[in-house]
Design brief:
It is built from 7 helices and 6 strands. The protein has about 240 residues and is an alpha/beta fold.
């Protein structure tokens, strides 16, 4: 189950393609996406020979985590992999930060991620599945400041702390919990000026692509990663800050 799959160039879409190519059934959530695109995307995932379902849902709704898991369980069965990819992001800064901005970020970035994770684990405990994976997407807030994005940085940073503590609780169930920081990734939001300004900060000579994050998520979801838990993996291509 992958949240936040609302356009073709996003990290969520890349994760769906990568996991489906490895024979994993896919259920994805979206919000505000073009419905024609959603249908086309679901069909493209089915072409891998796997099951696929989707649900349009606002993860800011407190009941959304429970409704999503009910839907995916009904359509495809209890999931063994949860990828918390959805995120809310707006610019703010100390002059503009207010309660509504904080609450909007909290509802999606923290509450939805946390409640999806624990509800996933509760249902998993009652199942006969041997191994589970929770993979959260974060943004490297611990590596450097993000001026003008105070609410985003604070709420995404909380995911790292949650990942570590939850991993200790869920390890006895056979569930690993990790987070991936993909660094600056060209998912369509960058204009040419931004690309040119940050390209020199990548020693590997290119900007991060959604497929880079998808490969790491797929590894963490695999059997080969069964001994990795409680980690925040900063996979940024050597991105240089400052």
């Amino acid at each position: 189950m992958i949240t936040g799959v609302s356009h073709e160039n996003g990290i969520g879409a890349a994760i769906c393609h990568k996991l489906a190519s490895e024979g994993v059934d896919i259920f994805f959530t979206h919000w505000g996406a073009n419905i024609d695109w959603v249908k086309q995307f679901e069909n493209s995932i089915r072409e891998y020979g796997v099951g696929c379902g989707n649900l349009e849902i606002d993860l800011a709704d407190p009941e959304a985590p429970f409704n999503v898991l009910e839907t995916v369980t009904t359509e495809l069965g209890l999931p063994s992999i949860l990828v918390n990819n959805a995120a809310h992001s707006t610019t703010d800064g100390y002059m503009n930060l207010d309660a509504k901005t904080l609450d909007d970020h909290y509802a999606v970035n923290m509450r939805a991620t946390f409640l999806l994770s624990v509800e996933f684990a509760r249902r998993f405990k009652q199942s006969r599945i041997n191994a589970g994976r929770i993979i959260n997407l974060t943004s490297g807030q611990a590596l450097g400041p993000m001026p003008g994005e105070l609410a985003y940085a604070a709420t995404k940073g909380a995911i790292s702390a949650f990942t570590l503590s939850l991993s200790a609780e869920l390890a006895p169930l056979g569930i690993t919990v990790n987070a991936v920081n993909p660094g600056p990734t060209d998912t369509g939001w960058m204009n040419e000026a931004i690309r040119q300004s940050i390209l020199p900060k990548f020693p590997l000579g290119r900007i991060g692509m959604p497929e880079d994050a998808a490969r790491l998520v797929a590894f963490l979801a695999s059997e080969e990663a069964e001994w990795i838990t409680g980690q925040v993996l900063n996979s940024e291509g050597g991105f240089l800050r400052g």
